[in-house]
Amino acid sequence: MTATKHDPKDFENPPINWIPAIVLLSTPLLALILVPWYLWTHDLSFSVWLAFAFFMTWTGMSITAGYHRLFAHKSYEAHPIVKYFLLIGATLAVQSSAFDWCSGHRVHHRHVDDEYDDPYSSKRGFWFSHIDWMLHKYPSGQYDYKNIPDLKKDKILQIQHDYYGFWVVLSNLIFVGLAGLITGDMLGTFLMAGLLRLVLTHHFTFFINSLCHMFGTRPYTDDNTARDNPILALLTWGEGYHNYHHYFQYDYRNGVKWWQYDPTKWFIAGLSKIGLAKELKTVDDLTIKHAEVTMQFKRAQKLANGNAMSLDERMLAFKERISAEYDEFTKTVEEWHALKAKSIELKRTEFASRLHEADEKLKEQFAQVEQKILAHSERIEKALLQFKGKTT
Ligand SMILES: [Zn+2]
Ligand SMILES: [Zn+2]
Question: Taking ligand 1, which is a single-atom ion, which protein residues have CB atoms under 5 Å away?
Fold first, then answer.
C-alpha cells in the first residue's frame, strides 16, 4: 500500500522508463517480423511447437499460480519445489521481480480505479492500463515495498529482486537454450518458445489490467470496474473471472463455478491432492451466492428506477414485486448472519462431544438458508426476464 496520495500534477510529462520501454516495444516488433519470416522459410518441427506450448504453459501459469495467487494474494501455501519452480517460470516471463509485481498488484487491489493511486488504473484509459504504466515512470508505479513484508522475509525472492536483469537473461538463455538443444533447432526454438511466447504471455497478462476492467459482466460487485470475461479467461489460464477475483481476492479460484475455465485453479487443486500445496483459501458458497443475489437486486432496482416516469400497471407490479422480494431477502440475510454468530458462539462454548450434534443441526439450518437464497435468486431472475420480455 502506498500511504501517500499522488499528486495529479506529477502525472504530466513523466520520464520514460527506458529498459521496460525498450523491451516492451522492441519484442513485439521483432516477433512480428521474425516469426512470420521463419515460419515462411522453414519447416517448423513438432518438437519446436511442443517447446512453444511448454514455455507458454510454464511461464503463463507461473504468473497466475505463482506471482498472482501464491505470492501476491497468499491464497494457498506451496511446497518449496513448487514455489521456486513457479518463481523460475515467472522470471522467464519477464514481468519484473516478484517484489515489484506483487507490491504493485496489492496497490492495485487496494486503490482499484483510483486515477492516480492505482498503478494500472483503467480510469486512465486502455493504453495506460495495458502498457503505458510501464513505459513511463509514473508516481503510482514507484513502490516502497511496505505492503510486502511477508515476501521480503524470503531471501531467494530478495536475490531475484536485487539481480533481476541478470536472472532474466540467464534463465531465458539456459532454459530456452536447453530446449533448443533438445529440438535441434536453436533459432526456431528461440523465436517460438523464447520471443513469440514472451510477447503473447506479456499481452495476455496485460489484458487483465486493460480489457478485463472494460468488457464483461459484473455478477458479484459493481463497486469497481473489474469484469468477468470468459474469453479472456481462455487466454489467461483462468484469470478472466476478474470481477469475482476483485471481490474475493483471497480465494485461490478465479473461475469459481465448476464449469468455468480456470486451469490455474485446477493446477493448484491438483497440487494439493498430491501434497504439494495446502491451506487453499476459499469463500463459502453462501457468501458467494449472497453477493450474486445482491447484484441481481441492484440490477432489478436500477431497471425499476430507470423507468420511474412510466408508471403503468406493469411497472408498478414489477416495482412491488422487487421491493417485496428484497424485504424477504433482507430477512433471509439476517437469519444467515444470526446463524453465523450462533455457529461461532457454539464453537466457543460447547463441549467437543456435544459440538458434533449441534453442528449437524446448524448445518441443516445453513442448508435451509442457502435454499432460501437460491429461491430469491430464481424469483428475481424470473421477474427480470418477465419484465424485460413484457410477458407479465
Ligand atoms: Zn484488476
Ligand atoms: Zn489479484
Answer: 226
Domain C-terminal end among 250, 278, 306: 278
d(CA 80, CA 64): 17
Amino acid identity of 124? R
- Residue 366 vs residue 51, higher pLDDT: 51
Question: What does the pLDDT look like over 316-373, one tens digit per residue?
Answer: 888 888 888 898 899 999 999 998 888 888 877 776 667 777 788 888 888 888 888 8
According to DSSP, residue 196 is labeled I
Q: Is residue 221 located within the same domain as residue 349?
A: no
- Distance from chain centroid for Cα 218: 14
Ligand 1 center from residue 353 Cα (angstroms): 46
The predicted-structure confidence for 295-311, as pLDDT tens digits, reads as follows 999 888 888 776 655 56
Q: Residue 315 is part of which domain span?
A: 285-388
> CA 320, CA 311: separation in Å to the nearest integer?
12
Clarify whether residues 53 and 99 are in a common domain: yes
Q: Is the pLDDT of residue 391 over 50?
A: no
CA of 328 to the centre of ligand 2 (A): 34
Statement to judge: residues 154 and 32 lie in one domain: yes
